[in-house]
Design brief:
With 174 residues, the chain is α/β, with parallel strands linked by helices. It has five helices and ten strands; from the N terminus they run βαααββαβββαββββ. It has a five-stranded mixed β-sheet with strand order 1-2-3-4-5. The protein has a three-stranded mixed β-sheet with strand order 6-7-10, with no helix packed on it.
Length: 174
Amino acid sequence: CGLPPVLITLTLHKIAIADMLGVSPGQLTDAQLAQACSTDEGKAGDLVDLAGCAAIREMSCLVGLEQMQELNISGCTGIDATTVATVVAKNRTLSALIFGDGMGEPATLEVGMTEADFSNKNLGMGGAIIISAWITHKDKGALSKLIWGGDYWNSPLDGWTTPEPVTLEVGMTE
């Protein structure tokens, strides 16, 4: 009948760090995050949700979460992109990252994705750093098409403008 001889089920454990600590996401501090990362419950999270944690600046403790497969940092506007890039580079189990400034639809990076459309996501320079780290450490050559830009911004020459997105593809010659 086409079914495999053995059926394996996998249950992923989602952990919202702020909820675990009993604080609102916007009030979660660096010290509280570090504390949560050191607990058994924090270490057991497969899907780690930090969405809206605007006060977080330091998240290097996430490198040690050896079960973390997905990290959601959308709306975490205080995090430095180089800190995120370090987590991407050093956490071996991370296979999905959700990020963005919280103003629009978040961006998602996943291991094995072949196309990514980040147009109109308002990711800025920080987003470029994060995407670069992902491509360098997680992508393994899968991503062949990337669309970037189209963000509404204030140009010193043109005022408020929305430039056309740019498409980058493997094998481009111009």
